[in-house]
Amino acid sequence: xxxxxxxxxxxxxxxxxxxxxxxxxxxxxxxxxxxxxxxxxxxxxxxxxxxxxxxxxxxxxxxxxxxxxxxx
Length: 72
Description:
It contains three helices and four strands, in the order E-E-H-H-E-E-H. By secondary structure, it is α+β, with helices and mostly antiparallel strands.
């Protein structure tokens, strides 16, 4: 996931994440990440040309909100 020289921010790489990164982080199949995007239920992503990327801070916020919702 992160290279040895990449700084970590809250356990996530300090770079934009790919769909493969999201699948690895959450331990889900890549197809699940694409389904989340189609259904707009996963972490918010954005396009750079034809590529989807995720801001690590937005991914962390999304995950924390899911945890808070489950705890409520």
